[in-house]
Write the structure tokens for this entry.
Amino acid sequence: MGTEETGWESRHAPEESSDADLVRAVGAGDRAALRELFQRHEPWLATRLGRRCADPAMVDTAIQETFLTVWRKPSGWRGEGEVAAWLWGIAVRSLLHQLRPRASVVDRLRGLRGSPMASAEEEVLARVEHSDVGLAFARLSPELQAVVQATVLDGLTTREAAALLGIPSGTVKSRMSRARSELREAML
């Protein structure tokens, strides 16, 4: 013999081995068996996948994924049925996986959550807005509303509200005092 043979090729002639023998050899880590399996099945897989998808790159990727799956998990074929049917199932799933766009995990989780839930604070504010207090607040002048919004609803200190509104701290205090008086009168 002029060339050195190793592995599966030295033990088996390709025409003697069944697909099942080849898958078992792949399970034992035999790359030559995988190569033989590829040479036997790639042509018809490419033809059949090509009838379902016009993009040759996607077909090639599906075939590559198919034989990577065979290499990584040859035990996926349980010894029942035809190896060709098992390969076809892997190839079709690989192709479909490429054709179906996948939403990000965050988008899928948002979809499960449904409509965004209002926080407790938002629920209270919604109730206040439509109550007698909310109606009285709506009747306040915009300057008084801004001070109440900043100090009561937003929880800012007098100094922070003054900085936010661009007015002196004393003005914040006087407007808040006036807003309290007007709200008290409106609630009677």
